[in-house]
Amino acid sequence: MKKQLLSLLVITEVFILTPSTALAEFYLNEKAFLRTVNNLLLENNNPLSKISNFDKLNYGQKVCINLGQGVTLKNSSEKLISVLASDKTISLNQKWQLINYDSTVTIAALHFFCPEYKSQIPS
């Protein structure tokens, strides 16, 4: 009886401590997403690479949420460009940095978090 209980406890511990395949895949996607975003932003000398990984993940996940709610990539980019065009307090270089950050995080989010929307990427 003791041996059976001990076996049950070990099996239960292994089950509890082993992440599900979906959770493991999500974790790996997050790591790949962050590695991709950070590398691309650094390659472009974009100071927005210093934004926290937590905020980058939130931004990327929000991209997918918006797409799921019917916002298109075209709508989203047009809105960003419109807002930046009308803001005279931001330099051209800062506008480039914001557009580069947005497009980098958006494309990475499409690739790693919501590939079902990849068809919206212009050719």
Structure description:
- This protein is mainly alpha-helical and 123 residues long.
- It has one domain.
- Helix content is 73%, strand content 0%.
- The chain contains five helices and no strands.
- The chain has helices at residues 2-17, 21-43, 53-68, 73-86, 92-112.
- Helix 3 packs across helix 5.
Which key terms come to mind for this protein?
single chain; mainly alpha; 5 helices; disordered N terminus
Summarize the structure.
The chain is mainly alpha-helical and 123 residues long. The chain has helices at 2-17, 21-43, 53-68, 73-86, 92-112.
Task: Reconstruct the topology from this structure.
Elements: H1 2-17, H2 21-43, H3 53-68, H4 73-86, H5 92-112
Helix pairs in contact: 2-5, 3-5
The unreliable regions are 2-18
Work out the count of structural domains: 1
By helix and strand content, what is the structural category? mainly alpha
What overall form do the CA principal axes indicate?
globular
Q: SSE order in H/E notation?
A: HHHHH
Q: In what range is the share of β-strand residues?
A: under 5%
Number of strands: 0
Can you summarize the main beta sheet?
none
